[in-house]
Write a structure and sequence with these properties.
The protein is α+β, with helices and mostly antiparallel strands. Helix content is 43%, strand content 15%. A five-stranded antiparallel β-sheet has the order 1-2-3-5-4. Strands 6-9 form a two-stranded antiparallel sheet. Strands 7-8 form a two-stranded antiparallel sheet. The relative contact order is 0.11. Bound molecules: adenosine-5'-diphosphate and magnesium ion. Residues 8, 10-15, 18, 25, 52, 65, 67-68, 72, 118-119, 121, 131-132, 134 line the site of adenosine-5'-diphosphate (ADP).
Amino acid sequence: MQSSEILLTGGKTNLGSIVRVGDTVRRPINSNSTFVHEFLQYLESIKFDASPYFLGMDEQGREVISYIEGEVPLNLGYYSDEQLVAAAKLIRRFHDVTEGCKLAGSEEIVCHNDLSPCNFVFINDKPTSIIDFDMAAPGTRIFDLAYAAWLWLDIGNEEISVNDQKRRLIVFTEAYGIYNTNLLIEIMTKRQSILIEEGHRHQKPCMTKWAQSALEWTTRNLHQ
Ligand SMILES: Nc1ncnc2c1ncn2[C@@H]1O[C@H](COP(=O)(O)OP(=O)(O)O)[C@@H](O)[C@H]1O
Ligand SMILES: [Mg+2]
């Protein structure tokens, strides 16, 4: 690492290999990067103002994206209704601009696929931008939103009451504009099952355990 590089911690997937250099971020590429770069360029072309710009590749073969000033949470937490509404509206705005774009192909939208609060930049405690598009791919609104609801509400956290989570789920989904919470919960459990599988496959026992307990909590308390 050169002296001008500042290590950015916080992420889990690429921990140790993401750095800030001036107003840019350097990240390793992966098999989805070509899609992601095109997608970030698309978002820039339509003047979406809440995602990083793709600036090219550096001499070390890393992607270069713009650094967005603000705070990125290190962990999940308890977000206020105001913050949940701001996040859901931002996700809605993001989904809306991807609907019908070439990169969505025959799908409804382009999903971010990792809409955790840990992939949002906050300014004055308000989520204002989305980062970490590594997993972006064509998909459906509800699939992306179900995962976002799980993480933004921290579903499965035993310290938050069932009634409060039911109420917050309505706050979140109504702010987005999806009213079929039963379908969303159904998809959330599918998403939890997918992560359990991925945890097994990639030998990430913490991920498996976390997704497993979230699935149990969701099935016990939210399933109809
Ligand atoms: N464009 C960006 N602007 C500001 N901070 C960023 C940006 N990209 C990454 N970061 C910082 O680097 C950390 C890790 O980046 P992220 O892209 O989320 O990687 P990972 O795939 O490991 O989760 C983030 O938590 C955030 O603090
Ligand atoms: Mg991340």
